[in-house]
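Dear support,

I submitted the protein below through the web form. The confirmation email said the job was done, but the results page showed an empty box. After a refresh the structure appeared. I'm attaching both so you can tell me whether what I see now is the final result or a partial one.
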Amino acid sequence: MTQSTPILMFVLAGWLVSLPGHLLAETLYAAKSGVEVNQDPSPTSKILATLERDAPVQVLGNKDRYVQVKLANGTKGWVYQFKLAKNTAKPEGGAINLAALTGGGNIHAKEARSGGSIRGMQPVAVGYAKNRHIDENHIRSLEWMEWFQVSDKELMTFKKEGRIGEFLGSK
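What the results page shows now:
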């Protein structure tokens, strides 16, 4: 080891520490539109921003079930971990083979994305149900379930009161 080796190691260590955080950080993406970026790692803290689906965020750290992120505009905040994904969503279109659920054939992604095809509401699934002699009352019941909607506000109230999702463990 020469005399310059410790100096070189010191310089190298200083350089590594000074690397911008974004070179070492992981990038995640908003799993859906409406993902809230909070000031603190709590669902009741001030909302700093709302992300669109697939918006990239830079991971700075984590605490409990929250991820500290930095947005493209420099805003830093916290996002509930299950509202982020490692990859962007696949583009819509094409066909998905759901033969096991429908008795054969392909269902287009536009039919499958709402889950209606899985619940039996799309034309392919309705035809399958009729071929299997499923009672019309059951089909109508499924149609009613598809029409039923819960607002985002109602869902958040339910999760908060039930202390589930991002409210797990909160008071």
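Response: this is the final, complete result; the empty box was a page-load delay. Helices lie at 4-18, 21-24, 99-102, 109-112, 116-119, 123-131, 136-147, 152-162.
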